[in-house]
Amino acid sequence: MTHTVEQIIKQWQTQGFADDQITVMESIRRLKRLDVLLMRQLNRVYQEHHLNQSEFDVLAALRRAGKPYTLSPTELFASMMVTSGTMTNRLQQLEKKQLIKRLENPDDKRSLLVQLTTKGIAVIDKVVPAHIELENQLLSAMSKEELIIINTLLKKIEANLPQNK
Asked: Is the torsion defined by CA of 141, 138, 156, 62 positive or negative?
């Protein structure tokens, strides 16, 4: 049975917890629920293009890097906050799909670089506009000013959290 955030908070209140004790809990719960709901929608866009979220993230990071759409695996896993083992698995899957290729690093013969293939560029260039369009639809009830306020508040939360580097 799925409980709405309101139901969960009401349950804590009936157990004797005061509003000031559960306000933060409510905020965290809403953030977690939004993440789940938003990702369900975004995953539909990725699946339409035969991708999953992690594959999209890698392709998008390479595309954002600009020409020649190349990054080191270290740069990729650092930007996505995943382990090197996780990144290796993602890269292997994308390589099988011929969306990326690995190149020798001219600056360091011990390492490789990851680059979008022509097919990878074509795929990510189709997915990103659909991704952006859906994000706009999902947040269309909010004004630009409200989005700026939310972004400011979310940045404040993020800045206060310990960062694993």
From this structure: negative
